[in-house]
Amino acid sequence: MEPFIRTDQYHYIKSQAMHMVHSHSSANDKGVLRVVTDLAMEKVTGYGDWTEEQKIHLTPLTGIKDRGDAELFLNALKSYVIPFDEVSEAGLKKLFPKAKKLKLPDMEIDRKETTYLGWIDKNSGKMFIVAPYKGKRKGLQGTFSSLHKKGICTICNGHEEVGLFVTEIKGKEQGTFIKRGNYICSSSEACNRNLKSLQQLEDFVELMS
Ligand SMILES: [Zn+2]
């Protein structure tokens, strides 16, 4: 079967699998566990436009009792995750035509856990983001100043080490610029792990561009 799960959906399913593990370690009541299981399954099947055939691959979620079960389930599910499409040098130039000598970020990442790319360019010190947006790709660039403490990230809503990401966009009048700033995770790897909603990322992209 073709991969059919988006990375953000995978992280959502993962959170539900971990919720199952937690529930089994803290509750013994069979009735309670049945409700928890039914709810988790309902949430997961309702998190995408899955076909009946695709849903079959999600049902082992109901059998999860411990961490080992969850790992087995998630490993099996990973073969159905759509990986982040690699960015070519040409693709990067197209996204950031004005950025000089911009190098591709380290792609030694788990592309099945990656929804967007975020990195600081060593040459310019600027932050670059390549994110999916309404079926296409969009590039954001700006400055990033670390806060060196934890806060809520605008992209993933996680509580992580954050920093202020500021972009400059053209104002309505020619030659004017408007600054937009938001706190986001310092580590894009952590951010991607937390990101359970593509919509949230698209909202962020819209806000910043
Ligand atoms: Zn984040």
TrEMBL record:
Q: From which domain of life does this come?
A: Bacteria
Any one Gene Ontology molecular-function term assigned to this protein's record: translation elongation factor activity
Q: Which residues form a coiled coil?
A: none
What does UniProt list as this organism's lineage? Bacteria, Bacillati, Bacillota, Bacilli, Bacillales
Which parts of the sequence belong to the Elongation factor G-binding protein C-terminal treble-clef zinc-finger domain?
99-201
Which Pfam family name is an example for this entry? EF-G-binding_N
Instruction: Quote the protein name from its UniProt record.
Output: Elongation factor G-binding protein
Where does the Elongation factor G-binding protein N-terminal domain lie? 4-84
The species this protein was found in: Metabacillus mangrovi
Q: Which UniProt keywords apply?
A: Elongation factor, Protein biosynthesis
